[in-house]
Amino acid sequence: MNFLNEDDLKNLLQYLKNADDMTHTSLIWTIALTGMRKGEAAALHWKDINLKEGTINIYETRDYLGQREAKTKNSIRLVEIDKNLCSLLDAYRKKVIEKKLEKGIQHSINDHVFVNLITLRPIGRGLAGTILNKAFENKIISKKITPHGLRHTYATIMCARGVPIPIVAKMIGDTPNTVIEYYAHSMKDKEKEAVQILSKVLF
């Protein structure tokens, strides 16, 4: 049950849109709207994001072992992002550059995307979890979830909305079998619809 329903997700994204810290907003929006793992988000460099084309190239992860190649072949992928996330990341990039200039630091496309806006160092491993815990404590979302729960939320909503399983698997960097195993609960209504379609065709 480590996922949010659509209303909770909308509330979370709107709550963060009005947050004071743009890193918090951009980090959670990126994870929630792409289904990427928190380690994949933490590993992103600005060179990996193409705002003109609306894509993010995922090929690394960052955790307690440091920054390294993504754990599986399926994890290496190019994901599409919508105009809302593009606009947010563009505004965030400008904010980061502004903060760097204040400290006399030259911005580079090789820099990590998500940084502490005070220290300008890459975010810590626990930030995403802290943000979600605070959202739960403030009653923005109805249940407590982990950052990985945002990935589950993404896949659950996609499956429930009828996005083909191979497409969902490609988008989140998993196999179709894994998607079927973990997200079968979100396909029950679609199964019922399928039965009705066949019934209408035959009778």
Beta strand count: 5
Structural class: mainly alpha
Model regions low in confidence, pLDDT < 50 over at least 5 residues? none
Task: Please bin the fraction of helical residues.
Answer: 40-55%
Q: What is the second-level CATH architecture?
A: Orthogonal Bundle
Largest sheet: 3 strands, antiparallel
> What is the average per-residue confidence, as pLDDT, rounded to a whole number?
91
Task: Name the CATH class.
Answer: Mainly Alpha
CATH superfamily: Intergrase catalytic core
Instruction: Record the strand order, biggest sheet.
Output: 1-2-5
Determine the strand fraction and express it as a percent band: 5-15%
Rg calculated over all Cα atoms: 18 Å
Shape estimate: globular
N-to-C span: 38 Å
Order of helices and strands: HHHEEEEEHHHHHH
- CATH fold description: hpI Integrase, Chain A
Number of helical regions: 9
Can you tell me the number of structural domains? 1
Can you characterise this structure?
The structure is a single chain. By secondary structure, the protein is mainly alpha-helical. The protein has a single domain (6-202), classed as hpI Integrase, Chain A (Orthogonal Bundle), CATH 1.10.443.10. Helices cover 53% and strands 9% of the residues. It has nine helices and five strands. The chain has helices at 6-17, 22-34, 38-43, 83-102, 127-137, 147-160, 165-172, 176-183, 188-202, and strands at residues 49-50, 55-58, 60-63, 66-69, 77-80. A three-stranded antiparallel sheet has the order 1-2-5. Strand 3 (60-63) and strand 4 form a beta hairpin. The mean pLDDT is 91.
